[in-house]
Amino acid sequence: MRILLTGSTGYIAQRLLPVLLANKHQVICCVRDKSRFSLEKFEGFDIEVIEVDFLKKESLVQIPQDIDVAYYLMHSMSSAKEDFSKAELLTATHFKEAVARSQAKQVIFLSGIVNSDTLSKHLQSRFNVEDALKSDHYALTTLRAGIIVGSGSASFEIIRDLVEKLPVMVAPKWLNTKCQPIGIRDVISFLEGVLMKSYAFNKAYDIGGPEVITYKGMLLRFAKARGLKRHIFTVPVMTPKLSSYWLYFVTSVSYPLASSLVESMTVDVVAEPNDLQQKLNIQPMTYEQAIELAFGKIEQNQVVSSWRDAMNRDAYPDRFKKLIEVPQEGCFKDVKSMKVDDPERVLKNIWSIGGSTGWYYADWLWAVRGFLDKVFGGVGLQRGRTSLDSLSTGNVIDFWRVILADKNNKRLLLYAEMKLPGEAWLEFKIDKDNVFTQTATFRPLGIPGRMYWYAVLPFHAFIFKGMMQNLVQHQASAAEL
Question: How far apart are CA 375 and CA 352, in angstroms?
Answer without folding.
Answer: 27
